Amino acid sequence: MDRHCPLPLENHDTVQLAHGAGGRLADELLGKLFMPLLHNRFLARRDDQALLPAFSGKLAFTTDSYVVTPLFFPGGDIGSLSVHGTVNDLAVGGAVPRYLSAGFVLEEGFPIAELERVVRSMAAAARECGVEVVTGDTKVVGRGQCDGMFITTSGIGELRDGVDLSCSNLRPGDRIIVSGTLGDHGIALLTARHGLSFTGSALRSDSAPLHRLVAAMLDRYRGVHAMRDATRGGLSAVLNELASASAVGIVLQEDTLPVDSAVRGAAELLGIDPLEVANEGKLVAVVPQGEAEGVLEAMRTCPDGTGRNAALVGEVVQEHPGMVVMETGFGSRRIVEMPLGEQLPRIC
Amino acid sequence: MDRHCPLPLENHDTVQLAHGAGGRLADELLGKLFMPLLHNRFLARRDDQALLPAFSGKLAFTTDSYVVTPLFFPGGDIGSLSVHGTVNDLAVGGAVPRYLSAGFVLEEGFPIAELERVVRSMAAAARECGVEVVTGDTKVVGRGQCDGMFITTSGIGELRDGVDLSCSNLRPGDRIIVSGTLGDHGIALLTARHGLSFTGSALRSDSAPLHRLVAAMLDRYRGVHAMRDATRGGLSAVLNELASASAVGIVLQEDTLPVDSAVRGAAELLGIDPLEVANEGKLVAVVPQGEAEGVLEAMRTCPDGTGRNAALVGEVVQEHPGMVVMETGFGSRRIVEMPLGEQLPRIC
Prior knowledge:
Order of helices and strands of chain A: HEEEEHEHEEEHHEHEHEHEEE
Domain PurM-like N-terminal (chains A, B): 47-158
CATH superfamily of the largest domain in chain A: PurM-like C-terminal domain
CATH class of the largest domain in chain A: Alpha Beta
Structural class of chain A: alpha+beta
Number of helices of chain A: 8
InterPro entries (chains A, B): HypE, PurM-like_C_dom, PurM-like_C_sf, PurM-like_N, PurM-like_N_sf
CATH architecture of the largest domain in chain A: Alpha-Beta Complex
Shape of chain A: globular
CATH topology of the largest domain in chain A: Phosphoribosyl-aminoimidazole Synthetase, Chain A, domain 2
Organism (chains A, B): Prosthecochloris vibrioformis (Chlorobium vibrioforme)
Protein name (chains A, B): Hydrogenase expression/formation protein HypE
Family (chains A, B): Belongs to the HypE family.
Number of domains of chain A: 2
Helix content of chain A: 25-40%
Oligomer: homodimer
Distance between the termini of chain A: 28 Å
Strand content of chain A: 15-25%
């Protein structure tokens, strides 16, 4: 259970410039909020660096900054998102996620209660992922100099033996698998941000950790060629990057792409392509043809449910290297382009 | 030499929202700016995580967010600062700094030329420190949603065998050493920010990497009890944290504290205590009495000059645990308190 976090701190119920200043108030924020909520033996040392046990093999190292707005959205918040995103970047690299760092930039006047809510959510997400937030930093900027709160998490994971995942590994004949419905995060954020509601639907972010799904896949077949989580730029960006890095073509079958009907409806209404929208709990895997069905089965039966809607959606071809082509239900073909940029800023 | 970085990118000479959006413009920013300037085999993989070689021993892991203003200041800039700060946090933990990550939050409209200048400075600082920026992320927020640029760097270092540095290691009789003049960074920032100038003086930040100094110290005596870089909150904050964590007292001799005369003058005029001001290239070490002179000598003769003004400034006592006391030149004593918070916001 979480330890008690006594509020308000030092009679402040909002973040003060001094909370980021390395003095008594900063010390109090660390001691009364961050340490009790994220508590572990590394943070308890109160040094400026965590000393981690030796790893037996190679490491994976990743970082992401989170500037999502709103901070709290259907299906998640910036705290859980900042853990899931970094855990997923380690997982799809073939690593077992172990340790996270967290750097906070806070706006003067930000409510301490909201900060507590975010850190609590971060702590819960870290527990679920089997990782620890072992070191961190807090800076405070004046009013109007940032928008509430930004978080940057970095992560270290332990690379599995015998795994070689890279965006340059695609070979003609490989199958393309996606782990579930596409576009949920982006569309949920957009509707939440603009206060839209669609009758009968509950649009929620898919923010979720994928480390168990990846473990199930690699346990089934260690030789998976490539994996990426389909965040900013969505499926379109990931497939274009993979095709380009491996100098191969990709052909998608439109009718196999899993898109939730509420997401499809909202996306149509908003004029947004769900394939270009960020996901925060979905991955794309490229698997040799003969192993694709086995890996798909391992995904669909992964006990945490993150792969229950996994689908085989296309294949790698020798033709049109660097290009992604979609075969539509009507037998025609269209090019799936690399998105120019964000249809939705501050989605993660 | 740095590779050529063709500007403007895609006919944009300022940062667009799409540069942080995982699509074509983001790809271009990565491929034409970050990768050529920071180039290394890890970034070249273009995956979302760096796969690092195995380490033989324990690791140190640290993170810091940088929100300094102005971005360019006498003696440094946010790019070099973000490398030095993280390198120093690893070094004072007893580790050899190896790999960095960098997360950028940029404001829409930020000049690409300034971004290039910052990344170029970061690359130069990394080379000097023998570290590589192996993974990164860029987010862009709308105008007015951040103040130009924030950077969060995390770092991984390899812990030296037989070193045990911790803020709870202080023992009565230990000597307190500082590596050079105090308050330079904070006072230089403040005067730069307000356009003040003091005749005949050249106030410059002391931003510098301390990894070679720490190596020289630990080569001379591996049993150093504690080390901290004296950043936010200055010497006062560090010594109060050390005294409190080790439940010992500390006595300083005022006339031994190295403060540059121009810094002292500016600080007096501004009503600021140089002991409470951030340094970005100074450390505090706590060393057993019998080894203090040897370590001091190793610091003063460190070839990069970062320890040339090192001084023995006080000692650890059994009395007044948790309290730092200064003996002044007039034979009186005063308490050196933990600063409440920042006299100078956004100093690093």
